[in-house]
Design goal:
It comes from Streptomyces plumbiresistens. Keywords: Oxidoreductase. This is Oxidoreductase. By secondary structure, the chain is an alpha/beta fold. Helix content is 49%, strand content 14%. Strand 4, helix 3 and strand 5 form a beta-alpha-beta unit. Helix 3 runs parallel beside helix 4.
Length: 271
């Protein structure tokens, strides 16, 4: 089967940002393949073909991309949305736990890119949209492993974009702020908790929970992703929502001392 409509592949499309992105891309005229770890339990979405995918498995990635190519004939947009969260102080996070975060949030992105990019180069067009976070350019105490993974995604994507432009393909970054999803509830807790960090960790956990409750709807992020997918002249970075935009400005213009104090104030940390 082939289609005359543009084709988008969205990872982590079973809920939250991924689900709203898949629906928004359908509304924008795309045929959409959405993935999840176990799509047998996913509520069907109009216009979205669901496939099982574990982005941390090379074999799973190869099989899923091949299924999309066989069904639709091409892939015009790849949205790397699948990811996992991690809470807790850096010292409380084991290397094994940090490796799990990087395996999904960073290596998973690389695996998807390596599998999809040859098809995009061959057709001389395509967009790779990697979902980062404001924590891709801001520090976040008690989320060091997660913030590190998103900083890695930013550096990887910006470097990749320079490599592939001459082949008609762009790599772009979307940076959400706090979004009303199950992120905080579904994030891994530290596997080596230490009493010395308990007070700070619990404080930041409460701050994060409230920020997510008050955060943007996933549709706000989906709108930014559709813009990245369809803009005639795309930007390298798309901040999703007003808070993300303000955070980007703060990082760029605030003096180092002011910025440092603001991070501690936001997280209700002493000193």
């Amino acid at each position: 089967m082939t289609t005359n409509r543009p084709v988008a592949l969205v990872t982590g499309a079973s809920s939250g940002i991924g689900k709203e992105t898949a629906l928004a891309l359908v509304a924008a005229g795309f045929d959409v393949a959405g993935t999840g770890r176990d799509t047998s339990r996913v509520t069907p979405l109009h216009g979205v073909t669901f496939l099982d995918l574990d982005v941390a498995s090379d074999a799973s990635v190869t099989a899923a991309v091949q299924q999309v190519i066989e069904r639709f004939g091409r892939i015009d947009v790849l949205v790397n949305n699948a990811g996992i969260g991690s809470m807790g102080a850096a010292e409380e996070t084991s290397i094994a736990q940090a490796q799990d975060v990087f395996e999904t949030n960073v290596i998973g992105v690389m695996c998807m890119v390596n599998e999809v990019l040859p098809h995009m180069r061959a057709q001389r067009r395509g967009r790779i949209i990697n979902i980062s976070s404001v924590l891709g350019f801001l520090p976040q105490p008690f989320m060091a492993a997660y913030a590190a993974s998103k900083h890695a995604v930013e550096g990887y994507t910006e470097s990749l974009d320079h490599e592939i432009r001459e082949h008609g393909v762009r790599a772009l970054i979307v940076e959400p702020a706090y979004t009303r999803t199950g992120f905080e509830a579904n994030s891994a807790k530290p596997d080596m908790p230490l009493e010395v960090y308990a007070k700070g960790r619990q404080t930041v956990d409460r701050v994060m929970a409230q920020a997510i409750r008050d955060g943007d709807a996933p549709t706000v992020v989906a709108k930014a992703i559709v813009a990245a997918a369809t803009d005639a002249t795309p930007k390298l970075r798309y901040t999703a929502g007003p808070l993300a935009g303000r955070a980007r400005v703060l990082r760029r213009v605030a003096p180092a001392g002011v910025f440092d104090k603001q991070i501690r104030k936001m997280n209700r940390l002493a000193g």
